[in-house]
Design goal:
Blueprint (H helix, E strand, L loop, with lengths): L8 H9 L24 H23 L17 H22 L10 E4 L2 E8 L2 E8 L7 E5 L3 H7 L18 H10 L10 H10 L5 H15 L1 E2 L8 E2 L3 H5 L13 H12 L1 H6 L7 H7 L8 H11 L13 H10 L6 H7 L7 H10 L20
Antiparallel strand pairs: 1-2, 2-3, 3-4, 5-6
Helix pairs in contact: 1-2, 2-3, 5-15, 6-9, 6-12, 11-12, 13-14
Length: 386
């Protein structure tokens, strides 16, 4: 049975160690271990890989909220063979990567514009046709079902599979670092989704400027609850981002109550004033890297903000987050085993992956590369308390 590209290397061990197993062999009985040179049985290898999936999904749960589905025990209607276990492992790996793709669009556990309800993914946003919401049923399956609601529902329904990365063509990348090679083996089949909703993606990206992720996510939640409106469709908790007209009309000092200072408030209002271009442009006809660069024409949107928004809105595989507090250290730690690095060093290290730098950084992050923390956490003091 041929293995699909990108499958974890443990599956290769399982297959090679059990090639002699047949349906008539006593080793088809899971109570009788099939061992290899290392002494590990088929069941041990299988559960070793499942632990990798559980750990990875645990990281999604901590960062993005509850996962779409949970791993459970598998029951066979027949005596399982090595091929049954390999099929199950393949499903686990695929589901893990698909979940990582769709959950990237969730701005924290309490994002009002994104919901997981009864196994379906919901998202609400503004489209060229007006407000809309989309439901994706069975998002981890090979045949997800998409349903749109509201004036922009059809527009969202037609592009819903892009949220799952169906448009992404996984390239051939030759690793120049051992960490990248290892991460590629585990996560090389990860697809980068795109929403084509540049206005939506820019708002939380702007909020993320110069503050911690905790602060930015809280401000996004509060901003949507205060100035957004209920999304079309049957899900009462789903909300739309603030309309551009309402956001542009908010005085900057009114946003101080949310912990948003004048600089970010002015940038939010600049994004709102440019909303006609952001919402109505068909960015699917523009090269992702070019579309990401075009976002920088908005006052207050720099390299980092454009990369964060472009990676989600356009699925830009080269949207390297230059200027991020953590990304440069992650690259330094993974590629050079140095705890701290600079943006210039990161750009130099990523030269072999030009055109795919964001994709490679996603692999490294999913592989668990984190620079060691130093010192106590800085105390967060909101401007509302000043």
């Amino acid at each position: 049975m041929p293995l699909k590209p990108g499958r974890l290397s443990i599956t290769t061990q399982i297959q090679t160690r059990t090639e002699a197993t047949t349906s008539t062999s006593e080793n088809d009985n899971p109570a009788v271990p099939v061992t290899g040179n290392s002494g590990q049985s088929l069941m041990q290898l299988f559960h070793q890989l499942r632990r990798h999936c559980v750990q990875f999904r645990g990281s999604i749960q901590r960062d993005k909220g509850d996962p779409i589905s949970n791993l459970g025990y598998f029951n066979f209607s027949h005596t399982p063979s090595c091929h049954d276990y390999i099929d199950l492992i393949d499903t686990e790996v695929q589901n893990t990567l698909r979940e990582a793709t769709i959950m990237a669009f969730r701005q924290g556990r309490n994002d009002p514009t994104f919901a997981i309800h009864e196994g379906s993914v919901w998202r609400a946003t503004w489209t060229p046709l007006g407000p809309g919401a989309v439901q994706i049923r069975h998002p981890l399956s090979d045949s997800p079902l998409c349903f749109g609601f509201g004036p922009g529902g059809q527009w969202l329904e037609q592009r819903a599979l892009d949220l799952l990365g169906k448009q992404d063509l996984i390239p051939t990348i030759t690793p120049a670092h051992a960490a990248v090679a290892a991460a590629q083996r585990r996560f090389g089949q990860l697809r980068l989704g795109r929403s084509l909703s540049a206005y939506h993606e820019l708002l939380p990206a702007v909020l993320g400027q110069r503050v911690t992720a905790v602060e930015a996510l809280r401000q996004w939640r509060d901003l949507v609850y205060e100035f957004g409106e209920p999304a079309p469709g049957p899900l009462p908790t789903l909300r739309l981002p603030p309309t551009p007209e309402r956001l542009a009309a908010i005085p900057y000092f009114s946003l101080h109550a949310f912990g948003i200072e004048k600089k970010r408030a002015d940038t939010l209002r600049a994004v709102a004033r440019d909303s006609e271009w952001l919402i109505n442009t068909d960015f699917s006809c523009v090269a992702p890297s070019v579309a990401t660069e075009q976002l920088r024409r908005i006052p207050g949107v720099g390299v980092w903000t454009a990369a964060v928004a472009g990676g989600l809105a356009f699925g830009d595989p080269d949207a390297l987050q230059v200027g991020d507090f953590h990304v440069k250290n992650t690259a330094a730690w993974a590629l050079r085993a140095v705890a701290r690095g600079t943006d210039e060093e990161m750009v130099a290290d990523m030269v072999p992956y030009a055109g795919q730098r964001h994709r490679v950084m996603r692999w490294l992050e999913l592989a668990g590369h984190r620079a060691p923390a130093r010192g106590a956490r800085q105390r967060i003091v909101s401007i509302t308390r000043l």
